Amino acid sequence: HDHPSIGILIQRPLMWNLKENKIWMLLIWTC
User: Fold this and answer.
1) What pLDDT does 15 receive?
2) Which of 5, 8, 25, 31 gives 20 to 30 Å between its CA and that of 17?
3) According to DSSP H, which parts of the chain are helical?
4) Non-local CB neighbours of 31 within 8 Å, separated by 6+ positions
5) What is the predicted pLDDT for the residue at 3?
6) In this predicted model, what pLDDT tens digit does every residue of 1-31 receive, in sequence order?
7) Which residues span the domain enclosing 6?
């Protein structure tokens, strides 16, 4: 999946809260 969100996740995943991380992961996996 080529999504720009993945690049952001890899760039700085520690700066986000666990809740946001789970939401982003769900959005990426569902897409």
Assistant:
1) 59
2) 31
3) 4-11, 18-30
4) 1, 3
5) 64
6) 566 677 766 666 565 667 777 887 888 877 6
7) 1-31
**Beta-carbon-side half-sphere exposure of residue 24 (alpha carbons within 13 Å):** 17
Tally of domains within the chain: 1
Question: Any idea which residue has 């996996």 for tokens?
Answer: 29
Read off the tokens for 1. Answer: 């999946």
Residue with tokens 């995943």: 13
Q: How far is CA 11 from the centre of its chain?
A: 10
- What is the rounded end-to-end Cα distance, in angstroms, of the chain? 8
The pair of three-digit structure tokens given for residue 6, joined into one six-digit string: 């993945």
